[in-house]
C-alpha cells in the first residue's frame, strides 16, 4: 500500500507572560523570524529543484540510449496535476476517441463516488524501471499529503514491457480491492497489450477499477470453469451393462437377420 507523505510540521508559538506591548513585539519578531525561515526554506527548495533538474539533464546528456526515457519520466513527474483532464498520454498510445471514452468514465466516476483516478501512459521506464515505484512517485508528487491523496489513484501503463502499475491512497486501494487490482495488472493489461490494443486495455482497466470503487462485481473477472461430473459406481455399472447388452444384440442379431433375409429370397425364387 502507498505510504503518503505527511504535511510539513507547523511551528508552535508560546505566549509571553509580559505586557501587551511586549507580547506584540515578541509576535512581530516571531513573524519576522518565520518569514526569514520561510524564505530560506523556499530558497533551499528552489536549490533542490535546480539540482534535480541539473541531474536529470546530465543523465539525459550522457546516456544516449536511455536519455529519452529519463526525460519522459521527468516530464511526467513535472506535469501539472491532471485534475480535469485525468489523462497524461506521454506514450502517445491512445486515440482521440479512446481518450474521450476514458475521460468520460473518469469524470462520471468522480461524480458518483468521490474517487479520482488519473491515467498515465509511457513508452518506457529507464530511471525508475519498476512500474509500481514510478506510479508511487507520480502519485506522491501530485498529491504530497495523505489528505490530498487518500481518494486518489494512478493507473500507469508501459508499452515497451507491456505491463502496468496502480498506486493510490489508503481509501482508494481499500475500496478497489486486491482481486481487481491483481486482475488488472496480471490479466487485462498483459493480454490486450500483447495484441497492441492499448485503448481497450486502458478502458477495460478503468472499468474494472470503477466497478470496485462503486461496490459492484468485476465485469471482466475470469469465469469459473465448470467442474467435470464424477460418475458414481452405480452409474458406471449401469453404463457398462447397457453397452454389454447393446453388443450382445448386435452379435446375436446380425446372424438372425441374415437368416431371415436368406429365407425371404428363397421364397421369392
Distance between the termini: 96 Å
**Percent helix range:** 55-70%
Report the portion of residues in β strands.
5-15%
Helix and strand content put the structural class at: alpha/beta
Low-pLDDT stretches: 1-67
Instruction: Give the overall shape, derived from the CA principal axes.
Output: elongated
Count of DSSP H/I helices:
9
Number of strands: 4
Q: What is the averaged pLDDT score? A: 75
Order of strands across the biggest sheet? 1-2-3-4
- Radius of gyration using CA atoms only: 35 Å
Order of helices and strands: HHEHEHHEEHHHH
Largest sheet: 4 strands, mixed
Describe this structure in words.
The protein has helices at 20-62, 67-78, 96-113, 131-142, 146-149, 170-176, 178-193, 198-213, 233-268; strands spanning 87-89, 116-122, 152-158, 163-168. With 269 residues, the protein is an alpha/beta fold. A four-stranded mixed sheet has the order 1-2-3-4, sandwiched between helices. α3 (96-113) links the parallel β1 (87-89) and β2. α2 packs parallel to α4 (131-142) and α3 (96-113) runs parallel beside α8. The radius of gyration is 35 Å and the shape is elongated. It starts with 19 loop residues before the first helix and ends with a helix.
SSE order and pairing:
Layout: H1 20-62, H2 67-78, E1 87-89, H3 96-113, E2 116-122, H4 131-142, H5 146-149, E3 152-158, E4 163-168, H6 170-176, H7 178-193, H8 198-213, H9 233-268
Parallel strand pairs: 1-2, 2-3
Antiparallel strand pairs: 3-4
Amino acid at each position: 500500500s502507498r505510504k503518503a507523505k505527511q504535511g510539513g510540521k507547523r511551528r508552535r508559538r508560546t505566549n509571553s507572560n509580559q505586557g501587551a506591548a511586549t507580547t506584540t513585539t515578541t509576535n512581530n519578531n516571531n513573524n519576522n523570524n518565520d518569514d526569514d525561515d520561510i524564505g530560506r526554506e523556499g530558497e533551499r527548495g528552489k536549490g533542490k529543484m535546480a539540482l534535480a533538474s541539473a541531474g536529470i539533464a546530465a543523465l539525459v546528456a550522457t546516456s544516449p540510449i536511455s536519455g529519452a526515457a529519463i526525460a519522459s519520466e521527468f516530464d511526467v513527474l513535472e506535469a501539472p496535476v491532471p485534475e480535469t483532464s485525468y489523462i497524461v498520454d506521454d506514450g502517445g498510445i491512445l486515440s482521440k476517441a479512446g481518450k474521450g471514452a476514458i475521460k468520460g468514465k473518469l469524470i462520471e466516476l468522480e461524480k458518483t463516488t468521490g474517487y479520482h483516478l488519473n491515467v498515465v501512459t509511457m513508452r518506457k521506464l529507464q530511471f525508475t524501471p519498476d512500474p509500481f515505484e514510478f506510479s508511487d512517485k507520480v502519485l506522491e508528487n501530485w498529491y504530497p499529503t495523505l489528505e490530498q491523496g487518500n481518494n486518489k489513484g494512478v493507473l500507469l501503463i508501459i508499452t515497451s514491457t507491456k505491463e502496468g502499475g496502480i498506486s493510490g491512497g489508503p481509501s482508494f486501494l481499500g475500496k478497489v480491492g486486491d482481486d481487481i487490482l491483481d486482475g488488472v495488472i496480471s490479466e487485462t493489461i498483459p493480454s490486450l497489450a500483447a495484441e497492441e490494443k492499448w485503448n481497450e486495455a486502458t478502458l477495460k482497466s478503468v472499468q474494472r477499477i470503477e466497478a470496485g470503487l462503486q461496490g459492484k462485481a468485476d465485469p471482466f473477472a475470469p469465469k469459473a470453469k465448470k467442474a467435470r461430473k464424477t460418475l458414481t459406481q452405480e452409474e458406471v455399472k449401469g453404463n457398462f451393462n447397457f453397452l454389454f447388452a447393446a453388443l450382445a444384440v448386435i452379435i446375436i442379431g446380425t446372424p438372425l437377420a441374415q437368416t431371415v433375409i436368406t429365407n425371404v429370397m428363397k421364397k421369392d425364387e
